[in-house]
Amino acid sequence: METSTSSIVGALGSGSGVDMVKLASDLAAARFAVRVQQLENKSELLETQISAASSLRSQLSLLANALGDRIRNGDLAPQPAIGNSSVATVTAAPGAASSGSYSLEVEQLAGSQTLASKSYASTDAAVGEGTLTITFGTVGAGSFNAEAGRDPVVVSVAAGATLAQVAASITASGSGVTAYVANGPNGAQLVFKGTDGAAGGFIVQGAGASASGTPGAAQPGNIDYLDWTPADDSGELRQTAQDARFKFDTISMTSGTNRVADLPGGLSLTLTGANIGAPTRISFVQGSGAIQGVMDDFVAALNDIAANLRETADPLTGELGRDPGARALKRAMSGLTSSVVMPNAAAGEPRTLGDLGLAINRDGTFRLDSARLGVTMAENSAAANAMFTTGLFGVFATMDKLSRQMGTTVNPGTLAGSVARYTRSVQRIDEQLAKITEQQDALRSQMTTQFARTDRNVAASQSTLSFLQNQIAALNADRN
Q: What is the mean pLDDT of each successive set of 10 residues along the chain, which is 480 residues long?
C-alpha cells in the first residue's frame, strides 16, 4: 500500500525540476501528521470538558448569588414594620443589615411658618408699587434672628399689581416661600408659607413708591401693608417654623423635615404624628407569601443544573462521564432534599430543604411539594422564614457552601479541580505541539539540504547523459 511519504518521494523522478523546499516541507509535515492529529483531538476534547465543567460551576455560583441577592434586596428581604402606623411610615435601604427592633416616640412634627396678611377688599386689589424683601432666620417670641450667610429675596411689585399677581411672583421667586390668596369672611388675605424646619422662618418688609413711610399707618394700597415681624405681630402668624423632635431608642433627635434618613438598620422615617409618652416599636418581618415563589424559582434553577449534569456526566456519551467533580456534584444534588440546613432548629421546627417542600424524582429532577411547604408555613412560619437569611445556616448558606466547594481547586474531586487538571493537560499538549513544530522545522531544514545536493547530482548526470547522447548521434550520422 502506497503511503503519503512514498507518494511524495515519487516526485523525485522529475529530476532537477522538483521544488525541493516544498518537498522537504511536505515530507516533514507527513512525518509528524499522525501525532499532531492525535494531540489536537485530545486538546479539543479537553477544551470541551473544561467548558462543560465551567458551565456547571457557573450555574451553581449564579444560583447561590441569586438567592443571596433576593434575601438581601428582593422579596425575601426583611421589611420594617411599625407598631403605630399613625406615628410614621418606615422604609429600609436596599441591602441594609435589617434586624433587631427600635423604639420611636415623636414629640413634635416639623412645620413651616405660615402668615396670613391683613385683609384686602378682593383678590384683584392693588398691592402698591415697590419691593417686598423676605429675610430668613429663626422666629422666636417677639424676636427674629437672621440666618447668617443666606441672602434675603427681593420681589418686585409693579404699579397696579394685584394681590393674586403678587402671590404668583412670590411663589416664582425661588426663595422656597410660596403664596396664595385666601378669601375669608373678612375679605382676601395673602398667605405666605415657608419651608419646614426652625431655620425656615422669615420676615416680610415692603418699601418703595407706595410705602406709607409711617410705621403702623399703612393701608391697603401701601406696599408696607404686607410688612410682618414678630415684634409687631397682630395675629398674622398662624404657625411658627419648627423642627421635628423625636426619640429614637430613647435618644433625643431633631430634624428640619419630617423625612428622617440614615438611622440604624438603614431605616428612613416619614413622621406623620405625635405619640408623646407612648413609644411605638419598629421591627423587621419577612413576608411568608414570598417563600412559595422563591421555592418555585429555586426548583426551576436546580432542574436546569440537573439537566446539564445529566447530559454532560452521562457515563457513555457525556464529556464529564468519568469526571470526579461531576460525580461529586451528582451526589450532592441527590442529597439536597435531606440536607440539614438548620442544625440548631428546635424540635418540631423545619430543618431540611425537604421541610420546605423540595422533593426529588427518580430521574434526578426536582419538584416542589406545595402541600408539604404549606404545612410547614402553617405550623412554623417564623422558623421557615429564618431559613432564608444570609447567616451561617439556611438555604442560601447551603447552596453557597456547595458552590464554594465546587469552586475550589485545592480538592481534585471538584468541578474547579477538574477544570484546573484539564487546563494543565491542555498546556502540556501545547508544549508537545511546540516541540513537534521545532522537530518538524529541523527535519525540513535537513531534508532541504539533502534534496538540494541530490538535485545538483541529478542535474549533472542529466547534463552528461545529454552530451553522450549528442556524441552518439553525431557518430551515427557520420557512418551514414
A: 40 51 76 86 90 92 90 75 93 69 95 96 94 95 91 95 96 95 93 95 95 89 96 93 96 96 89 96 75 91 94 90 92 92 91 94 92 90 84 90 90 90 92 88 79 64 64 67
**Block residue for cell numbers 556524441:** 471
pLDDT for the residue 474:
66
Enter the C-alpha cell of residue 31.
512525518
Render 407-476 in DSSP notation, one character per residue.
Answer: T-SSSTTSHHHHHHHHHHHHHHHHHHHHHHHHHHHHHHHHHHHHHHHHHHHHHHHHHHHHHHHHHHHHHH
Q: SS3 for 203?
A: strand
Rounded Cα gap, residues 120 and 80, in angstroms: 50
d(CA 415, CA 59): 12
DSSP lists the bridge partners of residue 244 as: 255
Return the SS3 of 311. Answer: helix
Give the number of residues written for the chain. 480
H or E, element range at 281: strand 280-285
Question: For residue 213, what pLDDT is reported?
Answer: 84
For residue 470, the model assigns a pLDDT of 67
At 320, which amino acid appears? L
Q: What is the pLDDT of residue 10?
A: 39
pLDDT of residue 220: 95
Closest among 290, 302, 298, 297 to 332, alpha carbons compared: 302
End-to-end alpha-carbon separation of the chain, Å? 50
Residue 124 CB coordination number (10 Å):
12
Which residues make Cβ contacts (< 8 Å) with residue 89, sequence separation at least 6?
82, 269, 270, 272
Residues 325, 53 contacting (CB under 8 angstroms): yes
3-state helix, strand, coil split of the chain in percent (to 5) is 45, 25, 30
- For 30, list phi and psi in degrees, rounded to 5: -65, -30
Bridge-partner residues for 367, per DSSP?
A: 359
pLDDT at 5: 39
Lookup: cell for 262: 440614615
Tell me the three state secondary structure of residue 207: strand
Calpha distance 319→313 (Å, rounded): 6
pLDDT of residue 9: 39
3-state SS assignment for residue 374: helix
